[in-house]
Design a protein that fits this description.
Layout: H1 2-20, E1 40-45, E2 60-70, E3 75-80, E4 93-96, E5 102-108, E6 128-131, E7 136-145, E8 163-166
Antiparallel strand pairs: 1-2, 2-7, 3-6, 3-8, 4-5, 5-7
Length: about 170
């Protein structure tokens, strides 16, 4: 009887081993891909001169900020137009009070206020340019209202400058 049990166990064990091993096996692969595209996001904080005394012979300085976030390794440049003031140029932008009065100002890319911010081509201007890091890059916009604009009436003057981001 012991012999009979051992043969039965052997037969069951052999049958289970046959079921546990698959008759065929095949390997496969799964391809995964993505394309990271170059991109940039621009934002600004306004240039606000505050109260300007046009009777003073001295210039009034102000600052704003250009904030850029571009894909790591992406070269970028930001140019600025002359603004919306009548007769404005890149070297002599003009804020308006809405009554035809124009307050001249200039935007610069450097703290010494010698590099006029423009399109990088006309009127010997320059642009803000850098290479993206994937994180926020802040550039100071330097500005100046030249002194001696004594004919202007009191009031609020403003302008809108359009920016072009190239990357």
């Amino acid at each position: 009887m012991k012999l009979h049990v051992s043969i039965t166990r052997l037969a069951v064990t052999s049958a289970l081993m046959t079921l546990a091993v698959p008759a065929m096996a095949q390997d496969a692969t799964l391809d995964v891909s993505a394309e990271v595209k170059a991109s940039c996001i621009a934002a600004t904080t306004p240039v606000a001169f505050g109260q300007v005394d046009v009777t003073a012979a001295t210039a009034f300085n102000g600052n704003g900020v250009l904030n850029m976030t571009c894909t790591n390794g992406t070269s970028w440049a930001v140019s600025a137009d002359a603004g919306q003031g009548t007769g404005a140029t890149l070297a002599d932008r003009r804020m308006s009070n809405g009554d035809g009065n124009l307050l001249s100002y200039v935007l610069y890319t450097d703290s010494s206020r010698t590099q006029i911010w423009g399109d990088g081509v006309n009127e010997a201007t320059t642009t803000f340019a850098d290479v993206g890091t994937g994180t926020l890059q802040s550039k100071t916009i330097y500005a100046k209202v030249p002194g001696g604009q004594t004919s202007l009436p009191a009031g609020t003057y403003d302008d809108i400058v359009n920016l072009t981001v190239s990357y």
